Every structure is written in structure tokens, then in C-alpha cells.
Amino acid sequence: MILSRESRRLRRRKMEERIFRALMAVSILIVIGCLVLIVGTIIWKGLPAMSLSMITQIPKGGYYLGKEGGILNAIIGSLYLASGATVLAILFSLPVVLYINVYTKKRSRLASLTRFSFDVLWGIPSIVYGAFGFIIMVFFGLRASLLAGILAVALLEFPIMSRAADEVIRMVPRELLEASYSLGATRLETALKVVVRQCLPGLLTAVLIAFGRGIGDAASVLFTAGFTDRIPTSLLEPAATLPLAIFFQLGTPFPEVQQRAYASAAILTVLILIISLVARGLGKRYTRHIIK
Amino acid sequence: MEIRPHLSVQNLNVYFDQLRILKDVSIDIPDHKITVIIGPSGCGKTTLLKSLNRLLDPLDGVRVEGRVLVDNVDIYDPRTEVTEVRKKMGLLSQRPQPLPMSIYDNVAYGPRIHNHVDKKRLGEVVEQYLRMAGLWEEVKDRLGEPASRLSVGQQQRLCLARGLAVGPEIILGDEPTSALDPQSSQNVERRLIELKEEYTVIVVTHILRQAKRIADYIAFLYLGELVEHGPAAEVFANPRDPRMRAYLTGEIS
Ligand SMILES: Nc1ncnc2c1ncn2[C@@H]1O[C@H](COP(=O)(O)OP(=O)(O)OP(=O)(O)O)[C@@H](O)[C@H]1O
Ligand SMILES: [Mg+2]
């Protein structure tokens, strides 16, 4: 009697195990399926419009929605914009995150308030950052320009980067900090020489996530960066961006131009991919010293 | 003027929130001896040790009362520079905590921060302290490798070398052998005995046999109270307090 109850329980546990395995397999399938589907669609639809001139020339043939030439203006514009915004975001994000993790105590009100702010900022839609950036821009008497776009995108990236970096830095064991303090290091020395080194791969990921969101976002640059066929040569000139190029191209009634939108999307995707791979490759070099 | 020891604890009380963890602890730590702090788990040994180089500061809800005098300076005096206090002590923690950098950089960390070593001599200094910690022969060909690749026992000796390189007067060890195998433990114990010539050593342990092997001076903590302290031979032969006696016979542990 007891034996059969045991065996029934065992059967049930095996059953549960199988159900959960199946569920997980389905989820993974959905995730990978989505990725393949999206990338596939972009490539399949964009391929006919893809050519070397897409990435080496600026638009030709009329307005910026031209059917000829390329989108070099948007590629360069996006790279300038996202790089500038990412650097700016790092400049603000890293000090804040190091401060709340190294300088304040675990129960600090200031730290939890800061984390709460990250969460709120993180949830704000990018169009709001765009609108906010626009207000700032007008306040300072700027035109739609690379600079204004960088400011808006930096605002968008800041909470994304900070939250991701915070998650990583929080995992640094207290004993590691104590080891550094016990050698007479100040908090700043500990933060820069120990914490940043220990967290470098995670911090890199945080920067990459933010960069990816920044370079792919259309709404925040809509009012702030403007759009132009030319490649910007100064911070005060307007700049084209890939997301907006895609948006405008898709919005036209011409199938040829719409096709170019998909090609642009493919280029954007590949761009992010390349940057991730390069950054990860660089990051690998610094993982060898990490204390597990 | 009366000669005071390097390190003197006077009426030290430590509170975590409202809880009193250390109760009126007063002790003069004898110079150039190994003082071993023993006591049952949770009695406040780690807390006492951390209070000596202000490692309690970053913790939440801690309050420290009383005085800890290092070379006649109260380390809890607001005018005292905390990094200077910590520089006078090398710490070995329960589990070795190498810094995320190479073996060489670990030892050079302190000298670089305090800038008290001529850059050209840094290599010599690193070698000197690695030798002192008995690690040089094992690592001399791989100084550029990450410290995390060393075995745990080697890591602990690296931490010793790193602590010594700062130029401390006092060495603090919080169960420094608890994560090590017997062989490595012995190795570390031997180092500590060698080092007392030059340094004042304070070691926390819960291994009675280890205490008997290395201690010159014993401090017995029980529930946050310093129940008994004195020269090791005396205390072990003739414990005065009944709780100390019970601990030695293994009735409380
Ligand atoms: N960060 C903290 N917050 C609150 N209470 C703490 C904290 N750290 C230690 N305590 C408490 O202080 C008391 C003493 O702890 P301590 O770590 O000093 O003991 P110990 O003698 O080192 O013990 P063990 O031999 O197990 O290492 C314990 O009751 C513990 O619960
Ligand atoms: Mg302890």
C-alpha cells in the first residue's frame, strides 16, 4: 500500500518534470522563432533593394525619400547620435551607480530613492523623452540638431544603463570591498580599481543595451535631431537617423521606397550586431581577472 | 610616561540596531605576540576584529562606543583618518579575497595607493612580501596571471603578502585557515608565528587546537563579553571563569 503511494508520487513528479520541460521548450521555440521571423522578414523584403550604394551613398533623386542612392546619411547620423548619447549617459550613469553602491549603506534612503527613480524613468515612453528634449532645445534656442538629439537619446539611455549597471554592481561581494578598504583604499579607489574591474563585462553589457536602445529609437529623435540628406559636420546641424529613415520610407506610397525601408532595417540590425560582437570581443580580454 | 601597547581596546560597546553585540570589552593587546580570540559561534569575534580597523563603518545600523587606541590615537575620533588606521593593519579574512587583478597587482595595490614605494623598487617590494608570505617560489613565473587562478591556500598567502606590503604594524586574521586544507593551514600558521617577530598578530579562531598551537595570549569572548584573557599557558592550564572552563572541556562550543 505504502509502496504504491510512493510510486504514484514518483510518477506524478516525473509527470510535472515532463510538463515543465515541454513548456520551457515551447517558450524557447517562440523566442527563437520570433527572432528568425523578424530577421527573415527584414532580409527577405529588403534584399531586392540592398546594394553597396545603400551604405556608401547619401540619398539621390529628389527629396530624402529618393529611390536611388543610399542611406549613408542616416547610418553616420545614427552612429554619431547613439555614440554621443551613450558617452554622455555613461558620464552620468557610472558615478550615480557607483555612488549608491559604494558610498551609501545598504539601507540608505537616498539609494532606494535613486533606484526608484531609475525604475520610473525606465518606464517613461521614448516619445516623452523626445518631447522633453524638444522643450530643452527650444529653451536653449537650439534648432533640431545632432546636439539636441544626443541630449534626448542620452536621457532615454540613462535609466536603462543605470539599472543594468546597478544590478551588476550590487552583486559584488561585500568582502571584496572590505579587502580593498582594509588595505587603506578610499571608497573612490575601491570603486574605480576594484568594483569597475570586477564588473567590467556586466557594465559593458549595460552600455550595449543602452546603446542598442538609443540607436534604434525613433520617437526621441523625431523632434530633436531633425532629418537631412547631408552628413552632419557639426553638433549644431540636423542629423538623419536610421529609425526615422525607416519610418519615412515605410510611410511612402511607393513600393520601391518601402523596400528600401526593409533594407535600412536590415542595416540597422547588422550594425547593432557588429557593435555588440566587437564590444564583447574587447570585453573578453578583461574577464580573466574577475573573482568568482 | 607609562608604556602602552600598540593596540588597546577600552570599554568597547558595539550595537547592531538596538542589539548590544559587544559588551564593555577592554583589553590591551600585547605587542609582538599572537593574541588569539576564541569563543562560540556568534559571540562577536568577527565584530571585535572588524572594530579594530573600522570595517564596521560601512555596515547598516552599527553604533560603536568606547575607544580603540592604536599608538595612543583613538581610531574612532572623528579627526582620525580612517585610511591611515587601516594602513596599520593587514587583514586576512575567513575566505581569501584576492582583488580582480594579477598576482603582482594584488601585492602592489597597497604600495601604489599609498605611494610609499619608489616605482623602480616596486618589483623588489612585491618579491620581498611574496617571500615573506612563503608564496614567491610558487608564483615567481606567473606574476601576471589572475590571482583567482591560485589555489585557495595560495590565495590566502597572497592576501597575507598583500596586507604586509602596505607596511602594517598589526596583522588581523578572522579564521584565516577555515577555508584551507590542513597542509595550507599549517603553512599559514607557520607564517603567522614567524611574523610575530615583527608584527603584532591577532587571530580569531574557533579551533581550540589551533589556538593552543599558536597563541601567546588568549581572549575568550562569550555572548559579547570578554570573559577571560591572559597569557595562553596560564589560561589553558588554569582557567578562572567557569564558562572558560566549560568551553575548554567542550561543554559549550
Ligand atoms: N551586519 C550585521 N547586522 C546585524 N547583526 C549582525 C551583523 N553581523 C553580525 N551580527 C550579529 O552579531 C553577533 C556577533 O557576530 P559575529 O560575526 O561577530 O560572531 P562570530 O563570533 O564571529 O561568529 P562565528 O564564529 O560564527 O564567525 C551575532 O549574533 C550576529 O548575528
Ligand atoms: Mg566570525
Question: Can you put this structure into words, describing what you see?
Answer:
- The complex is a heterodimer of chains A (292) and B (253).
- With 292 residues, chain A is an all-alpha fold.
- Chain A contains eleven helices and two strands.
- Chain A has two domains: 2-49; 56-289, MetI-like fold (Orthogonal Bundle).
- In chain A, strand 1 and strand 2 form a beta hairpin.
- In chain A, helix 10 runs antiparallel to helix 11.
- Chain A is globular.
- The mean pLDDT of chain A is 91.
- Chain B is of the alpha/beta class.
- Chain B has a domain at 99-167.
- In chain B, 35% of the residues lie in helices and 25% in strands.
- Chain B has helices at 45-52, 82-87, 103-114, 122-132, 136-139, 152-164, 182-195, 208-214, 232-237, 242-248; strands at residues 7-16, 19-29, 34-38, 62-70, 73-74, 89-92, 170-174, 200-204, 217-222, 225-231.
- In chain B, a hairpin with a 2-residue loop joins strand 4 and strand 5.
- Chain B is globular and about 55 Å long.
- The relative contact order of chain B is 0.19.
- The chains are: A mainly alpha (292), B alpha/beta (253).
- Residues 45-46, 174 of chain B line the site of magnesium ion.
- Residues 16, 21, 39, 41-47, 59, 206 of chain B line the site of adenosine-5'-triphosphate (ATP).
CATH topology value of the largest domain in chain A: MetI-like fold
Bound molecules: adenosine-5'-triphosphate, magnesium ion
Report how far the terminal alpha carbons of chain B are from each other. Answer: 42 Å
Largest interface: A-B, 27 and 32 residues
| β-sheet strand percentage of chain B | 25-35%
Q: Compute the number of helices of chain B.
A: 10
Give a quick account of the main beta sheet of chain A: strands, pairing sense, barrel closure. 2 strands, antiparallel
Oligomeric state of this protein = heterodimer
Number of helical elements of chain A: 11
Briefly note the structural class of the backbone of chain A.
mainly alpha
Radius of gyration of chain A, in Å, reads 24 Å
Strand order of the largest sheet of chain A: 1-2
Instruction: Please write the string of helix (H) and strand (E) elements of chain A.
Output: HHEEHHHHHHHHH
**Helix proportion of residues of chain A, in percent?**
over 70%
Mean pLDDT of chain A: 91
Biggest sheet record of chain B: 6 strands, mixed
Low-confidence stretches of chain A: none
